Amino acid sequence: MLHKLNLEHILFLDIETVPEHKDFEDLSEEMKYLWADKTKYQRKEEFSPEAFYDRAGIWAEFGKIVCISVGYFNFRGESRSFRTKSFYGEEKQLLIDFKNIIETHFNTPHHLLCAHNGKEFDFPYIARRMIIHNITLPHKLNLFGKKPWEVPHLDTLDLWKFGDYKHYTSLKLLTNILGIPSPKDDIDGSQVRQVFYEEEDIDRIIIYCEKDTVAVAQILLRLRQEELLQEEEVISV
């Protein structure tokens, strides 16, 4: 089935998220209480709500998206390229810009969105943040009433599970065992908050996010048993 997919019909993506506010003290008293209540089972007695706040980017209710990187294949005869583009800046605007590329270039029934662990993280996170900002969901993210086989999403983690739904494999591990050049050569997800708030280095986050997007495409190529992308085939636009 994977071999029947047209690679040009797939929009690969990755997101980077951080806590919505820099510090726990920036939250209202009500949000502090709600954060404590939301995370009590994850924290147990090991962390206070304040000490646990650096992980707030994991939850769409307490985090925000600072970068969405997308990538897509382009074929011209025997020539192949993979173009990447990133949306960053004020969250509402980057979500609108991302929505626009979906609705303009990836809006037909045969178009798919693809991410690693996208079904559990990227896709619902984007949808929730759009709703919070009062942005109408694009058709590709509005899953209400859709049957499972009608959902236009590919998930490389899901594909790797082969039906084993209790199994989780990180992007870093999967690229390693499949012989794909690791995208994790600078920072990892746990450092994005520090790079964003302390170092204020959004360019570093963009590079990291785009590398993850390329890695997702590389995994799909390996699952299809096709040649991996070479460095010169990847173009940032």
TrEMBL record:
<dbReference type="GO" id="GO:0003676">
    <property type="term" value="F:nucleic acid binding"/>
</dbReference>
<dbReference type="Pfam" id="PF10108">
    <property type="entry name" value="DNA_pol_B_exo2"/>
</dbReference>
<dbReference type="InterPro" id="IPR012337">
    <property type="entry name" value="RNaseH-like_sf"/>
</dbReference>
<dbReference type="InterPro" id="IPR019288">
    <property type="entry name" value="3'-5'_exonuclease_PolB-like"/>
</dbReference>
<keyword id="KW-0540">Nuclease</keyword>
<feature type="domain" description="Predicted 3'-5' exonuclease PolB-like">
    <location>
        <begin position="62"/>
        <end position="224"/>
    </location>
</feature>
<keyword id="KW-0378">Hydrolase</keyword>
<dbReference type="GO" id="GO:0004527">
    <property type="term" value="F:exonuclease activity"/>
</dbReference>
<protein>
    <submittedName>
        <fullName>3'-5' exonuclease</fullName>
    </submittedName>
</protein>
<keyword id="KW-0269">Exonuclease</keyword>
<dbReference type="InterPro" id="IPR036397">
    <property type="entry name" value="RNaseH_sf"/>
</dbReference>
